[in-house]
């Protein structure tokens, strides 16, 4: 699969160029799927010269198929990365690459804030695993870290024993490398550390990755592996389906790992944690992103101006 440059065809795989240029495993998966779909469509069009008009037509087709704005924009990001890498490697004229890169994304209508759990639901989720089994101990520890530390799924699967350190009299996740390579330290509550210790002690683990897959029956640890992103999603979904069945639907809650990150933020905010400290724990570059997680609404009954402590009466 090649593009055509000013000097003719090359043997360089353009998709591989893109994958080699990004570091996030999730981005690699998303871009590989997006570019595979694009090349399939492009091939069905007879592979016309790759131009801005062709990409704009592809965007129109995606919208006609009912794709969401976020789905279309991810595909456009992958294509922009593709043409720029192709231009840098002589597979596409620079002016054409820049023209394609200027194709506008689809404007999002409204804002999806995702799901949060109430404190009662979060507590129910935390207690859902059967801790009489090795797998249940692992799953409780995994849910505890997602709820208690607000980590991203990618951060959780890459968590190692060296990340768990004591600082200023408490346990923390030290020097965690998150999105865009930003490094932060995340405080860990005592109940979360207790859940992690119960799992690692039962699994006889003392080094390497913290969360590992277990054998099909869950009776032993596959020590040389780390848990996959897909496995984390399945674990969260499994226990989410057990939560709230009495007052929701027979299927329970349809949860994703990121919903537990939002829950961490929401419960911390309701508990009185300052928003800037929540931002630091989550590793957000912008406090506006944290506000989206919190679903912050303006409170006119108890507004910030009411607690300033100022008056016209003096002392």
TrEMBL record:
Pfam families: Phage_int_SAM_1, Phage_integrase. GO terms for molecular function: DNA binding. Keywords: DNA integration, DNA recombination, DNA-binding. Residues 112-306 form the Tyr recombinase domain. GO terms for biological process: DNA integration; DNA recombination. Residues 9-87 form the Core-binding (CB) domain. This is Integrase. It comes from Deinococcus koreensis.
